[in-house]
Design a protein that fits this description.
308 residues; alpha/beta; 7-stranded mixed beta sheet; 10% strand
Length: 308
């Protein structure tokens, strides 16, 4: 009869045999093999140290290049907008510091760009309460989200351009929480400063937007219908789902009704992208449109600086 004691003795015998095998095997390993393993470890360690040193040098060089680009960007765009009025409209969720830097560069290019008009998440009109709130703000009947949003956007764009429009959509949409105005610079102005500032529009979206790319397309089409020269800019940022650069701008570039009507920039998060957006606005004044950056469908990294 097989007893528990038999199993216990067998298990102990197995572990004893394993231990003896390890001891005996370790005493028989050729010293040359051990030496080769040691040399291999040292070689790998040396290569790792060299790679870490190279990475540190590359990071330092990259930082220097970024500082150089930041320092020279104002000189590149200086005077290119010649006092032209630019309204910057950004979707909430995009990095604020990126949009603020873009507006600052527009100002350094002699553009009249007082601040940022943020489109809040409610602009998506995802539920009935939001639709009712927007309809009340504009004093219009409640309709489907697409039609109501198009109507609100049309009024807003008209007000930005200084055209005649029912009511005061800029203030009404601020009061109802659909948009928020942010000054950029030392002068505090308020949302009224944007009235008439939409001779051109920069619409900023990106992977971090709380509104989504479909809404970016709808807003872009609204600008085209209104005849407003526009740059649709993507502020790329890393996401958990690893959305590639140019995903949002690429959607615009893929639309037949948009690709020839607006300019796009897919790297507003980089200083070169902010330079590209500024120069693209200058080109729009002469009817030249293009697609800039590093993502799919880009023509080149940036436009050429206009001749003085």
């Amino acid at each position: 009869m097989v007893t528990f004691r038999f199993y216990l003795v067998s298990l102990v015998a197995v572990f004893l045999a394993l231990a003896m095998g390890v001891v005996v095997g370790s005493t028989l390993i050729d010293r040359a093999i051990v030496d080769r393993l040691d040399r291999s470890v040292e070689s790998v360690s040396d290569r790792l140290d060299r790679q870490q040193d190279e990475n540190a040098e590359l990071r330092e060089e990259l930082q220097e290049l970024r500082e150089y680009a930041d320092g020279t960007a104002p000189a590149v765009v200086d005077g290119t907008l010649d006092g032209g009025a630019v309204a910057v409209v950004a979707e909430r969720g995009v990095q604020p510091d990126v949009v603020e830097s873009a507006v600052s560069l527009l100002q350094q290019a002699d553009g009249t760009a007082p601040g940022i008009l943020w489109l809040e998440p409610g602009w998506a009109l995802a539920d009935e309460a939001e639709r009712t709130r927007m309809a009340e703000a504009l004093d219009v009947p409640v309709t489907g989200p697409g039609r109501l949003r198009d109507r609100a956007w049309s009024r807003l764009v008209t007000a930005l351009g200084g055209g005649s429009v029912q009511g005061d959509p800029l203030q009404e949409l601020v009061d109802s929480g659909f948009v928020t105005y942010q000054d950029v610079g030392e002068v505090e102005t308020g949302v009224d400063a944007l009235a008439g500032a939409g001779e051109q529009v920069v619409l900023v979206g990106g992977p971090g937007s709380q509104l989504g790319p479909d809404l970016t397309l709808a807003l872009g089409r609204g600008l085209v219908r209104a005849g407003v020269p526009a740059v649709v800019a993507e502020a790329w940022q890393e996401q958990d789902d690893e959305i590639a650069r140019g995903t949002v701008a690429g959607l615009v570039r893929d639309q037949d009704d948009l690709s020839d009507a607006v300019s796009t920039v897919d790297d507003l998060d980089l200083v070169q992208g902010r330079v590209a957006a500024t120069l693209a606005l200058a080109d729009l004044r002469t009817g030249v449109r293009g697609h800039y950056g590093y993502g799919p469908g880009a023509d080149r990294p940036a436009p050429e600086r206009p001749a003085p």
